[in-house]
Amino acid sequence: MRTEQPEYIAAVTRLGSLRRAADELRLSQPALSETVRNLERELGVDLLERKRTGATMSAAGQELLPHIVQVLEAVDRLRVAAGEQHRISRMVRVGTVNAATVPLLIPVLREFRATHPVTQVEVVGAQQTEIHRGLAEGGFDLGLVNHLDGDDVPAGFEATELLRGRPVVCVRPDSPLAGRAEVSADDLLTVPLIAMRTGYVMHRYVHRLLADRTPVFPYSTDGAEMGKLMVAEGLGATVLPDFSVVGDPLERAGTIVCRPLAGDATEVVPMLQRRRADSVPRAAQDLYEAFVRRAAAAPRSGAGLY
Question: Whole-prediction pTM value?
Answer without folding.
Answer: 0.67
